[in-house]
Every structure is written in C-alpha cells, then in structure tokens.
Amino acid sequence: MSKPANSVLHTPLSRENATSLYEQIATRLLEEMEAGLYEPTGRLPSESGIGERFGVSRVTVRLALDKLVSEGAVVRKQGKGSYVAGRQVRHGLDTLRSFHESLKLQGLKATMRLLEKKVVTLPDDVRQRFAPAAKGLFVQRLHLVDGEPVALGDSYLPHKLHTFSWNEVERQPAYSLLADRMGEAPARADIAILAQRADQRLADTLKISEGDALLVMRRTSYFTSGACADHTHFYVRPERYEFVMSSTFRAS
Amino acid sequence: MSKPANSVLHTPLSRENATSLYEQIATRLLEEMEAGLYEPTGRLPSESGIGERFGVSRVTVRLALDKLVSEGAVVRKQGKGSYVAGRQVRHGLDTLRSFHESLKLQGLKATMRLLEKKVVTLPDDVRQRFAPAAKGLFVQRLHLVDGEPVALGDSYLPHKLHTFSWNEVERQPAYSLLADRMGEAPARADIAILAQRADQRLADTLKISEGDALLVMRRTSYFTSGACADHTHFYVRPERYEFVMSSTFRAS
C-alpha cells in the first residue's frame, strides 16, 4: 500500500485493519484534540484538508466527524467549520473588568505581549475624550491564550502612565496600571461590540487571513469624576469567543 | 474628449473646468449621499470602483475622499472602506427590547419581512430550554431599514404562538407577540454577541457576499417564572451596526 500524499502522520492508517478507516481517523483526531494540538482556537482542519492528509474521500472524513459530533467531542458551527467542543471563551460584560482579567477568570492560561508603548499626540477623535490633555500613552498589547494570539488591544491611556516600564505594561492589566498611577480604578465604561474584516496588519498580528471576520470591542472607561481613563479597541479572533451579558426590562 | 469607460454619470465631469477633478468628484458623491443613494449600509464604492466610474486615477479619488473626510461627510473604517458619516445604528443592550423596537428607537424606517413560520420539533439544544415541550414555533424574519436587509432573525418561540396569522407575525415585534399570547412579556434575557463569516444562505438573504463578516446576537429570553420565552439568533450586517452598553464595577 502506498503512503498517502502530504501525510504528516507518525503512524499511517491501516487499510487492512478490522476497524474502518473513518473510525481510525476519528480516534486519531480525538487523540490530537486531547493532546491540545488544535488549541487555542479549537478549530479542526477543513474536511478537504483532513481528507488530503489521510488520503481518504470527503465521505469518509464526514463519517469520522459525525462520529466525533455524536460523541460530543466536536461541534460544527454554521459557516465556520468543526471545533473541539466545550472551550468557548465567554467574556462577561455585566461587570467591568480588564480584558486580561476576563480571560484569566475563564481559567485560561492568559498572557500579554507588549508590541508598542509610546507617548503620542492624541488623534482628534480621542483627544476630545481626554481633553484638555493633548498627549497620551499609546499601548499595543497582544493577548494570548496558551501562547497563541486571541486578541490585539490598541489603548490610549492618560499621559501620566508613561513612566511605567516595558515590563510593567506587559504584565499588568490596564485597570491595575490605572489604579496604581491614578489612585483609583475606572468606575464605568461605555462599550460597543461590532464586527469587521481583518486588514493585513490585524491578520498578520493575529495569525489569521486578511478578510477574516473579527469581533471588535471598543471601550471607553471613566473615573468617578467623569475623566477619561482609557480608550481601547480590542480586535478579537472570533472562532470561539463571545461576549455575554444579561439584560432586563426596566422603565425607560 | 472621450467619455470614460463604464461611466454611469448623467453629466460627465468637465476636464476643462476651473474646478479640479477631485473637487467635482467630491461634490458629485456628496450629492448622491444626500439623495440617499448609499443607504442603508452607507458604504461608498471602493476607491478603484470610483476611479473606474469617473475615469480618473486612484490618487484623484483619494483626494476627493480626503476632502469629504475632512468635511466630516465621510468616515473611513479600518479594513472596511469609506462610509457616509453619522448613520451608525447603535443597538442598546442595557434595556431589553425587541430587535425591531431597537431599530425604530434609532429613528430608522424599520420593517420586517416574514420568510418562514412553521411548527417544528425543537432541535436538541433548543428543546432543553423549552422543556418539557418538544414542539415550538419557528419563525424566520428579515429586518429591513429603508427596505434594505440589515439582519435576519431565526427564532424559536413557544408552541402556543402558532395560531398567530402570517400578517401578525410579520408586523409585531417578538416581545409583543409573546405578551399578547402568554399574558406577560419576557423579564430578562441572556445575550451573547459573536462574529462569524456568512455562509451562502445568509449571504443570499442579507444581500452580501459569502465569507463576509457577520455580527451575531444570540438571545434567550425568560419569563419571570423562569420559563423560556424565545431562543433567537440575529445575523446582522455589520457595516454600521454596533451593540452598545454601559458596564460598571461591582463587587463580584
């Protein structure tokens, strides 16, 4: 029997085995999922990708995936492909928290990588928020889970924070930096959630393709005085990320 | 002078005019924006599309758009193109409202078109929410602004609502139908906001391209008793749509 083209397997499938091919493939994928091979996004390769890798037809791949779905190990998402079940990141919005804190609260191994930190003249739309200040600290941080990028945060912060070291900004959540330097944490935030397609810069940074869907959170935080504490865009890889909240009726 | 290829202009640009080409183009685009030509998405054609239409270089198109941006008539959105300014739909989540009501609250001319209405055996993941009921009403409605689709809502509702007529379901917001038939409106909802790429069905229905980014709201509403009132996915065209809310710190 010839080895399938493009095989990346350590052990080839057995075509003489009593176990059917699709069951062997299901077992192999399950082992890889358990070994964390598809973390943190949880996305499995496409059906055609799996078929090519194992040298089998798409029908066989579907049978394997159907088996994993029926066992609850894999979920299919409309228009998005197949995913390792049960690792959805649910970022709660009912309580104000730093993005980094929200990831850690999920029990995820969350880290940050500081990409940029510089004093800037605030762009017009940001300047009005921080008025009368004309300058601020711009910080760009990559949020990672298990070492893989899940979101990019572009933040404008009060100028006073510019004396923090590179290491401090890389490690401390924004609200912790603000509390340390300003003497109080933000009291509230206006939040907007939107979607856009990734441009080349975002695609490269987040390791996705240009044009992929991104979930975006725009957050402007305020101190109790009403002074602006931060203005941040978070560009989030959406595969298994969702923002959640409870909403109640109230007199308006 | 020859007419530019692919021109759809009623009046061609004047290349002998004292007014520069880019200013003429800016004026033309502004007139069209004011006439509502780019509503409801507000998206202007691409730079290359505008260039081709007017038979001018991309540099000239950029000058025209820069002029409109500096005048506040157009906004550029990273990775999304140029948009008519100031018609962002801001869907507030702080208070629970029907999707349709939220659009009307923005002062938009919002309508619904009923695409499907049928009694169904509830899918497994929905059935547990409506337990012990095994059947429910499935309703698919297109939400339009100025006659153009902005969102598709796929709703599961209590079986008791199946006696409403096609017309009633097409016209009444979900929470109004629920209040009429169940004797009370939902008291709270769990909401998740996510992003995904449009598959062929969603792309066709929403008049976008397969693979385009979609903003998705998944909502499960409950009556005060805790019984499930609706389970709905809203697939939203994201160009100018954002979900907004305020978040405050609280002891957790």
From TrEMBL, chains A, B:
It comes from the Bacteria. Keywords: DNA-binding, Transcription, Transcription regulation. Signal peptide: none annotated. One of its GO terms (biological process) is negative regulation of DNA-templated transcription. GO terms for molecular function: DNA binding; DNA-binding transcription factor activity. Residues 19-87 form the HTH gntR-type domain. Pfam families: GntR (PF00392), UTRA (PF07702). This is GntR family transcriptional regulator.
